[in-house]
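Entry:
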Amino acid sequence: MLAVLLACTVGSCKKDKDDTTSTFVYTTSTSSTLVSTFNLNNTNITSINVSRVFFTIDPERGMIYNADSLPMGTDISKMKAEITFRSPVKSAVFHVMDNNKESSDYEYKNNSSDSLDFRYGVTLTVTSADGLNTRDYVVKVNVHKQETDTIVWPASERRNLPGAADDNYAVSTTHYNEVYWCLLHNNNGYYLSTAANPAGTWDVQTVEWGFEPDARSLSSTSSALYVLDGEGNLYSSTDGATWTATGEKWTTILGRYEDRLLGISAQPYCYAEYPRRADFTPEPIDEKFPVKGMSQLMAVNPSWSTSSQAIMVGGVQADGSLTSATWGYDGNRWATLNAKGSELPALEGPVMFAYYNYQLDATTEKFYKRDVWMVMGGREADGSLNVKTYLSYNWGITWAEAKTALCQPTSMPAFYGAQAHVYSMEMKKNQAPMRRIAQKPTVWDCPYIFIFGGYNSHGLLHNSIWQGVYVRMSQYPVY
């Protein structure tokens, strides 16, 4: 009983001393005006369920915003807000600006079903239950200004081939020793240029060839550069300046597999490799195997294989017909991979590259990143040039036509016989808008696609390097 009386006495003293704070203890803290959650609700039809869009609440800066912007074209002129507060509040008033910079007030507690126009500026003023504290929040509903699930090829980023002249005949590129190499043949001769970044400055190498290289055949492994001459003789170099004959005679270089170069030997056509393994025996190629005009050979690591794989698509068969097949190599043999009924169109000179895109999860309303293999360009059997893009999510087994937003724009000329490389460039926060991921970096790598050369429908070489990027990847990744 004594303890109880003592507690009551202390409590009474405290109330007498500070009577204004004893009823609402929380109102002495800034937490009395904190917004706990902020969501929007659909009052119009959008391409995404906006009620699941996450809004960041930053009380220190007085901001409420969605880091992951709504899809381009979303109408935010009639949105309902749904708010919860850390503590009971006296009022929560939205001050909504119109296009004439005039403000209208909406009391949320009494009119929570009102639709708000977020296009021109909205501020939320929260007043604590006792009326002693207020806090203003700038509420911003971000909407993408361009379609994010699009690959863009800005004409402003297009540039000429390194060493290009008025008359360019052939070009090929490869990545070796952490450097990009570009071999160009024009009316002034043969130029071998290098750059650490394909969007950067190219330096021309001085080369004493001693032979006439086939400027469409430059390739490499981890240990050397390779090129054919006009007679099919295979040459190698470790520095690009000095070239040595290997003693091999090929019709076609296919590309790199691990530490060796794959190709097709001169007739009779046989599978070839260099350097040769001790147990390698040249075997005649399959009658449906392409002998020229195939895409670059790409390394892949499918989950269903215990060894690394390399794949290529398209090309011209020995009888002159085009193929739509995806061919794969597992280190010992070649085989077709594609499932029947989901092949590519038969193409000569398509480009294929590994890239990424995003798919919407209908349950979480969030996008997740996926590896994808993409095919562009190429010449069809009737001589027309392909302008569609094709996608594969399973290492070339099945292919599907991509939506228009992923295809090359009309400003980018149709082509065949080009080469593509993907290079990641470092981006910083102030270089791009926002997108949402699990962790927030200060810098991040954005993969860009570079397409070198290619021929038009008349067989003339395009003097161009086109630079493309998937828009969503160029945006700042935030919480």
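The helical segments are 2-17, 19-22.
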